[in-house]
Amino acid sequence: MAKKIKLLDETLRNAQQSLWATRMRTESMLPIADVIDRAGFDTVCVAAGVTFESAAMFLNEDPWERMRLLRRRMPETRFDVLVRARNLWGWKAQPYDVQTLFLETLLRNGVDSFKLFDGLNDLRNMDHLLAEGRRLGFKVKGFVGFNDSPAHTDAYLAAKAREFVDRGVHALVISDSPGVMKPERAYASLSAVRKAIGDTELHFHCHTTAGLGREACRQAIRADVDVIWTAARPLAWGSALPAARDIAAMAREEGCEVDVDDAALAEIDDWFYWVAHKQGKPVPVEKPFDPAFYQSYVGHQIPGGMISNLVQQLKDRGLEDRLPEVLEEAGRVRQELGYPHMSTPFSQFVGVQAVMNVIQGERYASPPEALRLYARGAFGETIASMDQNIRDLLSQGAADINPLEGLDEPALPKIRAEYGPFDSDEDLLMFLFMHPAAYQDFRKNRQPIVSKPRLHPVACLAEELMARPNIASVEVGHGPDLSLALKNA
Amino acid sequence: MSDLTYQDVIRVLELIDRSDCVDLDLASGDLRLKVSRSQAAPAARPAGQVEAAADVASAAVAAPASAPAPAAPTPPAKPDALLQEHPGATPVKAPMGGMFYATPAPGKPPFVTVGQQIRKGDQLGIVEVMKLFTPITAETDGVVVAIAVGNQQTVAKDDVLVLIETRD
Hints:
The structure holds two protein chains of two kinds.
Chain A: E1 6-9, H1 11-19, H2 26-37, E2 43-47, H3 49-58, H4 63-73, E3 79-84, H5 96-108, E4 113-117, H6 127-136, E5 139-145, H7 154-166, E6 171-176, H8 183-197, E7 201-206, H9 213-222, E8 227-230, H10 244-253, H11 262-279, H12 291-297, H13 304-316, H14 323-336, H15 346-360, H16 369-375, H17 388-395, H18 412-419, H19 425-433, H20 436-445, H21 457-466, E9 471-478, E10 482-487
Parallel strand pairs in A: 1-2, 1-8, 2-3, 3-4, 4-5, 5-6, 6-7, 7-8
Antiparallel strand pairs in A: 9-10
Chain B: H1 6-17, E1 24-28, E2 31-37, H2 47-61, H3 79-85, E3 90-93, E4 98-101, E5 117-118, E6 123-129, E7 132-137, E8 142-147, E9 153-155, E10 160-165
C-alpha cells in the first residue's frame, strides 16, 4: 500500500504572517472557506499569537469572532493553533489556571487541536498545557524547533521528540522555521526522529526563505513524515512555506498517495491570487537555493520581520550603515545565550541586545530585565550552556529562578477583581495577551467583521474597470446568459 | 470553477493598465469584453494599487515595537528647563530608546507623582522596546521633583525621565 502524505494548511496563519505582515482580513478568508473545507486538508491552522494580535491591533477585528466565523463555514475540518508554551499568545508566562481557561476558550470557539512550542524546547514549560489539552480532548502536537547550531544535533532533536511522545502528544512536529535545513540534513534528522517516536504522526514545517524548502520536503517525505505544512500558491514560497499543489505533486512523484481535491486546491489558489491583487501583495517566485543569502543569514537566523524592525531602530539613530555589524554581533549574542530558538521572545533578546551592544560601544551595558531573568533560568533550561562570563554578568550573582515558580497559584480571581469586570473569557484573554494600550484601542475601534459573498470573476472585472477614471465604456458578455454595458457619464 | 478565473481577470486588467489610450475588444471562450477609453481623462490608477499604498503606509506606522499612539499624549516638559529649575536634582535617564510607561497598566495610577517620597529601588516607570519591558528604578532615596516625559512617549537613550532630589 502506498504511503499517505497529508497537507496542513497554513495560508491563514503562518504564510500571511511571513508575507503579508499578518494583514489578511477575515473578509478575504470567509468567501473561500467552504472550498478549503472540502479540499481534504489534514488540518487548517487558524491562529497564533501574531495573527491574534494583528487582527485586533491593525485590522480592528475580534480574532475570536474570526475563529467562530471560520468554524461556521468549515464544519468538517480540524482546526489548530500554535501555542507559545506558557506565554500562550501573550508576552509573559501565564499561570496554570489561565492556561486551562485559554484551552477551554479555544475549544468553545471551534479549535480542536494545537501545536505546542517552547523556544527553549523545555518540556516543563509545556507540561500543564499538554496534560490539560489531552484531558479536554484536543489533538496535541508537540513542536520541536530546529535552528542551525552546534547544539541542534539529530540526537538532540530525536531526544526532544521522544520526550514529547513519552508525555502523550498525538503528533510531533519538526519545524525549521529559519529555513536553514539542507535536504540531506532533513533526511538525517527526520529519520532519527522517526526512529525515536515509532508510529506517532510526524509533521515537517519549513520556511523557504533560502530556497531549501522544496528539496527538504522531498527528503522529509523519503524519511517517512506523514504531514507537510503548506500554503496556497499566492502565499507560498519566498519567506513563507511550500505551495500545497507543488507538494502534492511531489509526494505523488515520490510514489505516495495524497488525498486532496486538486480542483479545490486550484480554486483556493485562484481566489488568493485575487486577494493578493486587491491588496497589492506580490506573489513570490519560487527560487532555487541561494548560497550567498544562506551564508549571510545562518549566523544569526533573525526572522525577516524582525530584521526590518532592527533596521528601523538603527535608522532612528542615523546608524543604518552599521546593520552588518549588528547582524554579526547577533550571531555572537546568540551563541553566548546558548542558541535559544530564534523566535519570540528570544529573537528579540538577541536582536535588541545586538543593537545595544553595537550602539553603546560596551557589550551588555544595560540589558533588558528579561535578559537578566533568562540568565537566571526563569525561562527554562537553555538549549546549550550559556557563555559563563556573560551569564555571570547578566545574573549579577543572583540566585537561579525556577521557571515554574508561582505558576500553580490561581491568578484569575485576582485578575477579575483588579481589572474586571470583563465581557467574557475571550475578552479577559485579550486583555492578558495584548499590550495594554493596544487592548484599549481595540475596545474603542473594533469593527464588525464583514462577510461578503465571493464575487464572480466577471463581476470583479466589470467593477475594476468602472473604477478606472479614463475608461469611457465597458461591454462585458459571458456565455449566453450575461451581457452588460456600462458607460462613464 | 467557472471558465473565467480570477487570474484571467488580473491578466486582462494588467493588459488594460499597460496603456492609457488603447481600446480593447476581446473574445475568449465565453467571455466578450469591449473597453473604450476617453482621451482627456487622467491616467488610470488601479483600485488594487491605491489600497496597496494605504496598506504599506499603515504597515510602516505599525511596526511591531511601536504601540499605537495615545489619543492625547501628555506634552513633554523640557528636560533642560527642568534641570535648571532643580539644579541639585539627580536625573534618572533612559537606559535605551523605547516607549516610556508611567503607569503599570492603563487606567492605573502612575508609579510615582511629583512630590512623592521614594526609596532606592522603587519603580519609577517602564521603558519598552520590542515588547521587552525594562523597569526604571530609583538609584537613591529622595523626592520626585519632576517627571520629564509623558506616559507612552517615545524616548531616546539617555533622555531624562525623572528628576529626584536627595534630601539630607
